[in-house]
Amino acid sequence: MAWVKVTFPKWRKEMRSVQWGPLYNEFKEADLDPAELEAEISMLMQDEDVTKKAGIYIYVLSREERHLSIRAFTDNQKREAYERQTGVCPVCKEHFELAAMEAGHITPWHAGGRTIAANCKMLCKEDNRRKGGV
Ligand SMILES: [Zn+2]
pLDDT tens digit string along 73-103? Predict the structure, then answer.
């Protein structure tokens, strides 16, 4: 597709698994800068928290983070954050069992926060759901 070659001139193997038709339909009129897109794509390809590399092409157009499958916290990282918080949810200040809590990023990924224990906070399920989850 000519639009793809113009918008994303650098070929990468991940482009094979992208559904280009719907993206073309939605963004063919958009004012896109191929050099700017390429710089961002290259950066995201090097980001180890981005686990779904093909989703980068959808993300740079739609800005929907779910397409990147940002790395989830491991059980060990959750455990470390839980101990640090002594089991207390930072939002409602109540105490919960580990199994009743969910992990979130303290600094969100899109603001430069990494998926590491130091950037992990455990929220009770209700508060995690209320903020939309990370
Ligand atoms: Zn809570």
Answer: 999 999 999 999 999 999 999 999 999 999 9
> 51 alpha carbon to ligand 1 midpoint, in Å?
29
Contact between 109 and 88 (Cβ < 8 Å): no
pLDDT in tens, 48-79: 999 999 999 999 999 999 999 999 999 999 99
What's this model's pTM, rounded to 2 decimal places?
0.81
Q: What is the CA(96)–ligand 1 centre distance, in A? A: 8
> How many angstroms separate the alpha carbon of residue 120 from the centre of ligand 1?
15
State in words which class domain 75-130 has. Answer: mainly alpha
**Residue ranges per domain, the chain?**
2-68, 75-130
- In angstroms, what is the span from residue 74 Cα to ligand 1's centroid? 21
Alpha helices in 8-91 (DSSP H): 20-27, 34-45, 55-62, 75-84
**Residue 134 CA, ligand 1 centroid: distance in Å:** 15
Neighbours of 52 (CB within 10 A): 15
